[in-house]
Write a structure and sequence with these properties.
alpha+beta; six-stranded mixed sheet; 7 helices; 28% helix
Length: 253
Amino acid sequence: MIFPLLGCTNRTDYLRRYADFLRYSLGDFTVLERRTRNAGVLYRSRVWELQFTRQNGEERVFVIDNAQPLAASVIWGGAYRIFRDALKNKVAANYFMLEEFQQNSGALTRVSLWAGPLGERRPDSARVLDPQKGLQLYSVTPQELVANWGFNLSIEVRTQDQENHTNIIERLKAMTWTLSAYLEQDEIVIRFILSHSDEPPAEDINFIGIYNRQTDKFITQTFREITEKRGANFVRTPLWQISTHLFQGKEMD
């Protein structure tokens, strides 16, 4: 009988294997920490925390783990965070308080900026990790991520603030309009959820909508309308899966 080796560690050295790409993507960087972590039953992975300074002077920490494909870390641990933080700090904070973007802040209203290359928009790993033309975290901008790397913003706002929900919807619409122009993204899908309302019922207030930059119009459907036409599960559809080809609603004033 052969017994597996206990406490096996993945010794693949990402710093060595992807040295050319990391120099291209990050520029000069410093290794802040090297460690191992439990990545499964009787299995450990190696983790590196890398600090680098972006072209705009912003210092960032990029974490890579050899239990994960490096391309996924570049997209979700690197580019997505750059994208989200830029939108939140440069644009969205003009419409909502920063604490409302923090999911555990206790704020009555929570704002989520969803993005990333999913489904057919997901780029090939070899393209992401190309050491001459790949995804360059040092200089990439949100606009480039939308235009060249399959990023697609969608927005969800959940609130318990029944008294001010109309104002929150207006701020959501204004923020969506501004973000669409900032990103040069033609369509942005939004979802608004009021946790509870007696009059009118929440399902007549809550909605999914699409803003189209070319027509400068919002098309929306309430949860009640969606449920009647497509069933209750459609209101929980991941926003990145919704497009004008799947969704027809009424124009929002």
